[in-house]
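Lay summary. Proteins are chains of building blocks that fold into shapes, and those shapes determine what they do. In this project we predict the shape from the chain. Here is one chain we studied, written as its sequence of building blocks.
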Amino acid sequence: MGSIGDPVRAGQTYNRCLDLASGRDPAIEYNMLLRLSEVAMVLGDLTEAKDHIERAKTMVDQGRVTYRVEQGATEAEILLRKGDCAGALEHFERMRAFWQRHPARRQDHVSYACSCKARAYLCAHRYADAIRSASEGLAIATAGGMPKESIDNLGPLAMAYEGLGDPWNAMRTWKRFYTMRDSANAALADSRLTGAMLAADFEQQQLADSLANAEQRRRMVLENEAVVAREKNRRNVFLFSGIGALVLAGSLWSRLRYTRRSRAAIQKEKDISEGLLLNILPEEVAHELKAKGHADAKHFDNVTILFTDFKGFTEASEKLSPQELVEELNTCFKAFDGIITAHGIEKIKTIGDAYMCAGGLPVPASSKPVGVVQAALEMQAFMVARKKERDALGKPAFDMRVGIHTGPVVAGIVGVKKFAYDIWGDTVNIASRMESSGEVGQVNISEATYALVKDEPGLTFTPRGKVQAKGKGEMEMYFVGYA
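And here is the predicted shape, written in a compact code that computers can read:
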């Protein structure tokens, strides 16, 4: 079934078309009935969807139109939602066979039919069959470079693994599903950005055309006035000159209004694209990328890096479904995003269940080391409250370690596809060691960070002495908390 942006408005339009086509054009009437059944499905009205399909079937039975495979697909969706797994599977199998032998060899339709069969198998709790069908559809989509059809098959495949009690394959498949879905969203963002840039070029051409047309009209009016002046008296010259001026003024005013409306529409698209780009890159880096077509890597002397990691993540993943696990990670990371934004800290990335951010870049004055420490304490406070909340509900919860270190890094963008802002240097490695050498519920900081925040009011420090850090030897470390 296709994607319907506004089902209510689409339904109104299809109904008007159906009224116009009824009794006049059977092909359009049949097509509108199929479209209306899809709209009813989206709105959850199975009764109305079935009514439209029955009318379409009657037209086929009467020989007024030729059967289309979309009719069978919609019938199957109705049966599936009513719990008739076997009936839906029969329709989906016919749909797959139809596209398999179709002269156009539409492999995207074959892959989609495989995903539909997998959903029907899930309905019947035939998980092994669902895995086989979804895997076949995924293989076709992957070979053909079809991301949408890959996503269609990955969802049922992950649910089938869940049904078989295979959490690791389910988790792996869900991760691939979310990765491809996010990639598709990123591609959409790139497309909208490119569209806005093309629109900006079009705007410049529109303005140039407007000025050229206005100048051409001006010359024509002047030439006309000269002819009239030679052939008629002064009174008529004034009369026709006035009329010409009014026509020209009206024309220019109309063009000016059109240009203003075009400029406003283009600016709106620019603003949307700007927001999408700023959600991917820091503001300063985004502006540099737009101005130069690339962003230069930069060295920063004092950047404070924060790493978090959840303890017991593996144990929790065994007690939660893959979807619940991803949702809980999302809840925690959304809270962290809000905390670091309030402190002017730049989010770098998430790696599995780890979260990484940095203060002091891309603008060195954007945040101070003490701001990163305060953000870490707020993150730990959130996790403590979250654990109490989930313990009360009898649900698994995460404990967290946090590590912080301050030092020099290089930051920038690498590559040209799916680019992301990242940082490199030994400072990153030491910050990671601060996290892994810490303890649950604590914020562990290095000696370098301690030297920068030790005199800040409201904080208390617990020296840990020299602690062995993997690959770094013994290092001075401190636990920090509120005074």
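What the prediction tells us: The first strand starts at residue 298 and ends at 311.
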